[in-house]
Amino acid sequence: MSMAYKRSDILSHLAIIQHHIPQAMSVTTDVVGNVVAQSQNSLTIQRTTGAKNLRLDLTPHAMHEGRSIDRLVASTSLSKAAAEEIYWAGRELFKLNPRGSWCATNTDAPTKDFATADIVPDLHHYVRECMARLGSMLPAADLMKVDTSTKQGPDGRARKRQWIRFTKGDQYELTAIDTASISAHVADGFVPRPSEFLQANQLRMAAWAKQLEVGTDDLPEILHLAGFAAVQLGFEEVALQRG
């Protein structure tokens, strides 16, 4: 059964958050904490400046709701009404994708000269093989899209950030992943060393695999290839299925 959701629904909820927090760079939904005893549905809003991330507890409970809204008001200059709108936009995003991360800003970097593999002259055979392999491993997805923005670091320098989305057709999205998290998940997928993050990373990978309709064992390689295309090669799109 497909877990795809409409991209337009995601955009409508992100627009609410960005309206109230114009500096919002990314929005991430996740399940955090001790999965067995004290798990927590969460929303994290990262801003384009060096400001501390905003975190909301989205766990559906009246006590959590009021506390999360009050904390958001206390940590920002937002009104309670605005904080409530952000909270409920987060709840709706979580329903659509409880393990998603999206670029929330429109300040994307300029389009590159070689935005896709198709327009690179004399594409290296290794790159061609990797892109073909990625497509063969993802029969449920048609396209990999990469969204890019920049974050101002403490030293004043702008640092590029990227997010990957796997899509189906023109309207639907399967998965949304922050490339900053890829290396840790690839490592824990291929060589799972004991750590405080191992269980959370494995559960996140299992969720992504389900969204992409692939086996969990294949997910580390998929992430590795996707990160290679987006981060190392700088592709903005990868066509996964060839007619």
What's the Cα radius of gyration?
18 Å
Helix/strand/pairing class, anyone? alpha+beta
Q: In percent terms, what proportion of residues is strand? A: 25-35%
Order of helices and strands: EHEEEHHEHEEEHHHE
Tally of DSSP helical segments: 7
Please count the beta strands (DSSP E, at least 2 residues each): 9
Shape designation: globular
Strand order of the largest sheet: 1-8-7-6-9
Mean pLDDT, to the nearest integer, reads 90
Distance between the ends: 24 Å
> Helix amount, in percent?
25-40%
Would you mind describing this structure in some detail?
The protein is an alpha+beta fold. It is 40% helix and 25% strand. The protein has 7 helices and 9 strands. The strands form 2 sheets. Strands 1-8-7-6-9 form a 5-stranded antiparallel sheet. It has a 4-stranded antiparallel sheet with strand order 4-3-2-5. A hairpin with a 3-residue loop joins strand 2 (24-34) and strand 3 (38-47). Helix 1 packs antiparallel against helix 3 (80-96), helix 2 (62-75) packs across helix 3 and helix 4 packs across helix 7 (219-232). It is globular. The mean pLDDT is 90.
